[in-house]
Design brief:
Elements lengths: L1 E4 L12 E3 L2 H8 L5 E3 L2 H33 L2 E4 L8 E6 L1 H12 L8 E2 L4 E3 L1 E10 L2 E9 L3 H17 L15
Parallel strand pairs: 4-9
Antiparallel strand pairs: 1-2, 1-3, 5-7, 6-8, 8-9
């Protein structure tokens, strides 16, 4: 059965695409949930009239997805987890936990189904996680479980700089100001 998509359908197509699907899938899901309409000659004619508007919305979506990709690629997301000896986690970090951490850290709402974890993370450390944003656009977010090595190094450098800057009391010399 041929249908015209009204929304993006992951793995099938985007808004305005005409796709061929099984009649049961079309009748039981796509048509009832508002994802598609039947591809009748009248609907196809209306679709042709709306092509410019659909193309503009598509450009906007792609630009937004690229901006979100850049933001995710630059982010380091801390995830809270209980860590045992030798870096093993009690339990595991799931896609839901990663999505919640992205929302808490960056304020970006990410659907847990878009977080592509092949298997749950079971060790502490730094992990790269792929997030599917829109169609073929995917961002890679750095997930930090436990202590972040970069943050720890930066904190140590700041503490050393403060320690070096402090002058012990014995070394302070009184200076008299002589006026002419």
């Amino acid at each position: 059965m041929k249908v015209i998509l009204l929304k993006e359908l992951r793995g099938k197509g985007g808004e305005g695409d005409i796709i061929d699907v099984a009649p049961g899938f079309a009748n039981n899901f796509l048509l009832t949930e508002g994802y598609a309409i039947k591809a009748t000659p009248g609907n196809i004619k209306q679709l042709e009239a709306k092509r410019k508007n659909i193309a503009k919305r598509e450009e906007t979506r792609i630009a937004d997805a690229q901006a979100l990709k850049a933001q995710l690629d630059a982010a380091r997301i801390p995830v809270e987890a209980q860590i045992g000896e030798e870096g093993q986690l009690f339990g595991s970090v799931t896609s839901t936990m990663v999505a919640d951490a992205i929302n808490a850290t960056l304020g970006i709402e990410v659907d847990k189904r878009r977080v592509e974890l092949n298997k749950p993370i079971k060790t502490a450390g730094v992990h790269e996680v792929v997030v599917s944003i829109y169609r073929d656009i995917k961002g890679t977010v750095t997930v930090v479980i436990g202590d972040d090595p970069e943050t720890a190094e930066a904190e140590e450098a700041v503490e050393e700089a403060i320690a070096d800057a402090e002058t012990p009391a014995e070394e302070v010399v009184d200076v008299e100001v002589v006026e002419d």
